[in-house]
Design goal:
Shape: elongated
Family: Belongs to the peptidase M20A family.
Number of domains: 2
Strand content: 15-25%
Strand order of the largest sheet: 1-2-4-3-5-14-6-12
Number of helices: 13
GO molecular function: dipeptidase activity; para-aminobenzoyl-glutamate hydrolase activity
CATH topology of the largest domain: Aminopeptidase
CATH class of the largest domain: Alpha Beta
CATH superfamily of the largest domain: Zn peptidases
GO biological process, one term: folic acid catabolic process
Mean pLDDT: 96
Helix content: 25-40%
Structural class: alpha/beta
Protein name: Peptidase M20 domain-containing protein 2
Order of helices and strands: HHHEEEHHEHHEEEEHEEHEHEEHEEEHHE
C-alpha cells in the first residue's frame, strides 16, 4: 500500500461516523425518481462544504461536483451515486411522506460517493491525481411510476424515464472519460463483487384498451369488453414466446394498472404496464414489435381500441476491457483484513437491467457491488446489517479506484480510454432512444348493437 492509498483509507475511517450518519439519514428519507429534492440538497451541500463547484438541477435533481476546476488537464473520472428509492409502502422504514423505501440500496452508493469525495478532497490526495474527478448524483434509476414520468415528458421537463439516460441526452457526460458505478447486494457470503458482465436491454409500455360499458349480466352484448381484449393480447404474447431465441434472453412481464370498474360492468377502460427485455438492442426491437402485434391483435379481435405508449428503458451493460484499477483498490482495501471477493466475468450475462448500461455504451464503466444488507432487493425485508460493508467499503473502493486510474499522470485512465470500443456515440444513442419512443393507436371498431 502506498502513502496515498493509506491516506485515502485513513480519511474514510476517520470520517466513519459522518459517512454512516449520511447513509442512515438517506435511508429514512427515501424519495421517488425525479422527486429526490431533499436527497439532492443534502448531497449537494456536502460537496459545497468541500469547496467544490456543483452544477445542480441536471435532469431535475441530478448534480455534478468537480474536485478540480472544470477543464483541468487530464482525463475525468465520474463517481456516480443514485438518488431514488422504490415505492414500497409496507417497509418498516418507509418514508411516510413519499411512500418510498430504499430497498434498492441506492442510499448506500450515494453515501459511498460522499465518502469518496471526503477522501479525494484531501490536498495530498488531490495533488496525486493526474486528472479530475466528478462526483455525480443521478436521479430516477428505478423504472417505476411511469404515469408521473410520462407527465414530465409531456411537460418537457424530462424526456426519458431513466435518470442517466436523461443525463446523457442533455450532455452531462460529455466531459467524462471513465465512469465508476456501485450497487448493493444481499449475498453476504461475499464482501464485494467485481460486476463486469452484460445485462438486458428493455423498453417499457403503457397499454390502454378502450371498450364500451354495459350491464355484465343483463346486456353484455351491448358492451365491448376491454378486459377481454387485454386477456387475449396477453395470451398472444404467451404463445409468441416460442419465437424468441434462447440466446436473446427475452423477458416479457407486466401488470394491470386498471382492470375495470366493477364486477357487474363490462370494462371500458383497462390499462397495463408492460416491459420487454432482451440481451441486445436488435433482439429487443424484434421482441417489442411482436408484443405490440399481440396488443393490437387483442384489440382488433374484440372490437376495442388500444393505445400503446412505448418509453425506451435501458441499454445493455458493456463489460469493461480492463478492471485492474478496481482490482488494485480491492487489494488495498483488504490489506489489513482480506476481503471475500467474487468476480462476475465478461462472459456472464444477467437478465435484469440498469441505466449504468447506457453509460457503458458510450464510455468505459467499472462497476462493483458490496454487501452488508440482508433480505431480497426490491422487497420489504431489506435491512442494513453491516454499515462498514454497506457504506465504508464502497467509499474506499470508489476513492481507491479513482486514484489508481488517475495516478502516474492518469496512465490507467488513458489506457482504458484507448482500448475501450464504444457501442454508441451520444448522438446515435439519442437516435435509438427517440426511435423507440412513441405511441401506436388502433381505433375502436365495435359491431352495431343488436336491439332486444
Amino acid at each position: 500500500m502506498d502513502k496515498i492509498e493509506q491516506k485515502i483509507i485513513e480519511t474514510i475511517e476517520q470520517n466513519r461516523e459522518k459517512i454512516v450518519e449520511f447513509g442512515r439519514d438517506i435511508w429514512h428519507h427515501a424519495e421517488l425518481g425525479y422527486r429526490e429534492f431533499r436527497t439532492a440538497e443534502k448531497f449537494n451541500a456536502l460537496l459545497k462544504e468541500l469547496g467544490m463547484q456543483v452544477d445542480e438541477e441536471l435532469a431535475i435533481t441530478g448534480a455534478k461536483g468537480y474536485l478540480k476546476p472544470k477543464g483541468s488537464e487530464g482525463p475525468t473520472v465520474a463517481v456516480i451515486g443514485e438518488l431514488d428509492a422504490l415505492p414500497i409502502a409496507n417497509h418498516k422504514d418507509t418514508n411516510p411522506e413519499t411512500g418510498a423505501a430504499h430497498c434498492c440500496g441506492h442510499h448506500a452508493q450515494l453515501t459511498a460517493t460522499i465518502g469518496a469525495a471526503l477522501a479525494l478532497s484531501v490536498p495530498e490526495v488531490k495533488e496525486a491525481l493526474g486528472g479530475n474527478v466528478v462526483f455525480m448524483s443521478a436521479p430516477s434509476e428505478e423504472f417505476v411510476d411511469i404515469d408521473y414520468k410520462n407527465g414530465l415528458r409531456k411537460e418537457g421537463k424530462a424526456r426519458y424515464g431513466g435518470g442517466k439516460c436523461e443525463l446523457i441526452r442533455i450532455g452531462a457526460f460529455e466531459d467524462i472519460d471513465v465512469a465508476l458505478g456501485h450497487h448493493s447486494d444481499t449475498d453476504n457470503s461475499n464482501d464485494a463483487i467485481i460486476m463486469n458482465c452484460s445485462s438486458n436491454v428493455f423498453v417499457n409500455k403503457t397499454v390502454k384498451f378502450k371498450g364500451r360499458k354495459a350491464h355484465a349480466a343483463g346486456f353484455p352484448h351491448k358492451g365491448v369488453d376491454a378486459l377481454n381484449a387485454a386477456e387475449l393480447a396477453l395470451h398472444g404474447i404467451a404463445l409468441q414466446r416460442e419465437s424468441f431465441r434462447d440466446a436473446d434472453t427475452v423477458r416479457c412481464h407486466g401488470y394491470y394498472l386498471k382492470g375495470g370498474d366493477a364486477v357487474n360492468i363490462i370494462a371500458d377502460d383497462v390499462v397495463l404496464e408492460y416491459c420487454v427485455r432482451a440481451k441486445t438492442m436488435e433482439a429487443v426491437i424484434d421482441a417489442n414489435a411482436k408484443v405490440d402485434r399481440c396488443f393490437k391483435a387483442g384489440a382488433i379481435a374484440t372490437g376495442c381500441g388500444v393505445e400503446i405508449e412505448t418509453l425506451p428503458g435501458y441499454f445493455s451493460t458493456q463489460p469493461c476491457p480492463d478492471v485492474s484499477a478496481l482490482e488494485a483498490a480491492l487489494a488495498a482495501a483488504g490489506e489489513k483484513k482480506p476481503l471475500r471477493v467474487k468476480e462476475v466475468p465478461a462472459s456472464a450475462h444477467i437478465t435484469g437491467s440498469t441505466d449504468f448500461g447506457d453509460v457503458s455504451a458510450i464510455m468505459p464503466l467499472i462497476q462493483f457491488y458490496t454487501t452488508g444488507l440482508t433480505g431480497e432487493l426490491h422487497n420489504n425485508n431489506v435491512e442494513v446489517v453491516d454499515e462498514d460493508i454497506a457504506y465504508i467499503l464502497p467509499a474506499k473502493l470508489f476513492a481507491l479506484t479513482a486514484y489508481h486510474l488517475l495516478k502516474d499522470g492518469a496512465a490507467g485512465a488513458k489506457h482504458l480510454v484507448d482500448i475501450y470500443e464504444p457501442k454508441l456515440t451520444r448522438e446515435t444513442y439519442v437516435d435509438y432512444m427517440e426511435k423507440m419512443l412513441g405511441t401506436t393507436t388502433v381505433e375502436m371498431d365495435p359491431l352495431p348493437i343488436l336491439e332486444d
